[in-house]
Amino acid sequence: MSAGFQCKKFYIAHDQCAMKVGTDGLLLGAWAPLPAPGYDILDIGAGSGLISLMLAQRTAGANPIDAIELDDVAAQQAADNVANSPWPAAVRLIKGDILTYQSNKRYRLIVSNPPFFHQSLPSADTKRKLARHTDSLPYSALLDKAAMLLETEGCFVVILPADYSAFFVALSQQQGWSVSQRCEVYSKVGKVAIRTLLVLVRAAVATQNTTLTIHADNGQYSAEYIALLKAFYLKF
Within a 10 A sphere around the Cβ of 74, how many other Cβ atoms? Predict the structure, then answer.
């Protein structure tokens, strides 16, 4: 078996992917609000397929999921992970660039763990650079594309480094989005936020603000983090 991450109900091989399974993807896959059964879901930048398979598990395969990935090798590994999962018919892997993706389909939920090193020193590894830097997927273009592909009643859910979130939110508001939910993620109580989870919608709404702390004072995982991820982590 290739290097990867074992969830309770599926296995993610990720040795061919620039970005490995990590906390960001796990948080997004577990936290994103689910549409009613039957509504379509889109995963932008699917990587290993982790988030798509988490959503397939949470919806019991009742929602068609399109997962688009730019990198050929990562897309193939994600397709293999889907084929070997309990929900092979629920997720359709699309090898391609979201910026040129065309579809008549409109999605009730769009999720993305987008590139986030905006105007920072690029990685020497080309694949890792594509996965981590906004050069290949500028935030403004991502927001525009999500708006084009989203149903009227749909939502766009992302996870970002906390210090990028204000920029992203301001840009989204300029493009007609509103933040319906914002969750600030902390490694421990008393630390600064490390990640921000956002639910964006196309209607004017008030923002519901929450927090999530990953570790308790004793260094163990917090009760709220365990509750969020217990359906996936073997250790929970």
Answer: 25
Pair of tokens at residue 105? 């389909």
Of 192, 136, 135, 184, nearest in space to 159 by CA: 184
Cα-based distances in Å from 38 to 54, 62, 211: 16, 6, 30
The model's pTM is 0.90
How far are the Cα atoms of 33, 43, 66, 116, 162 from residue 182, in angstroms, in the given order?
Answer: 12, 19, 25, 18, 11
158 within 8 A of 114, measured Cβ to Cβ = yes
Q: CB of 143 within 8 A of CB of 175?
A: yes
Q: What is the pLDDT of residues 202-227, one digit of tens each?
A: 999 999 999 999 999 999 999 999 99
b/e map of 115-126 (b: 16 or more CB within 10 Å)? bbbbeeeeeeee
